[in-house]
TrEMBL record:
Keywords: Metal-binding, Zinc, Zinc-finger
Domain PHD-type: 60-110
Top-level taxon in the UniProt lineage: Eukaryota
Record has Metal-binding as a keyword: yes
Signal peptide (UniProt feature, chain positions): none
Compositionally biased spans, kind Basic residues: 15-28
GO cellular component: chromatin; nucleus
Compartments it resides in: Nucleus
Gene Ontology molecular function, alphabetical: zinc ion binding
Name the record gives this protein: PHD-type domain-containing protein
Region (Disordered): 1-38
Length: 120
């Protein structure tokens, strides 16, 4: 077996003697479609139709339990039926304004009366 330094020198000579004589061949076009170009926001906004957003007025909302519109800062609006409820009129009482969406008992299905059987 030849010494390692001789083998390494021989490999280097072979690698350095290889030279590219022509440009690499181009691959044939792939069957997949070319990537789609994303539209700029300015292009999208130019084509977008303008709309007028309707602003709902919740100034005349009353509590469904006590029928009062007072203490509006304590009124919770159901995200499903848009009815108002004072936090203290609800059972169980809601201590603070919930984070995120809130659905009343009727819309969530918890407003149904449940029957209880008496034990024998």
């Amino acid at each position: 077996m030849p010494p390692a330094s001789t083998t390494t020198a021989l490999c280097r000579r072979q690698i350095s003697s290889r030279r590219r004589t022509s440009a690499p061949r181009r691959r044939s076009p792939s069957p997949s479609p070319p990537p789609k170009r994303m539209k700029l926001l300015t292009e999208i906004l130019q084509k977008a139709a303008y709309t007028v957003a309707e602003r709902e007025d919740y100034g005349d909302v009353n509590c469904e339990q006590c029928r009062s519109g007072e203490r509006s800062e304590e009124l919770l609006l159901c995200d499903k039926c848009d009815k108002g409820f004072h936090m203290k009129c609800l059972r169980p009482i809601v201590v603070r304004v919930p984070i995120g969406s809130w659905i009343c008992n009727k819309c969530s299905g918890d407003g149904q009366r449940r029957g209880y059987r008496r034990g024998r």
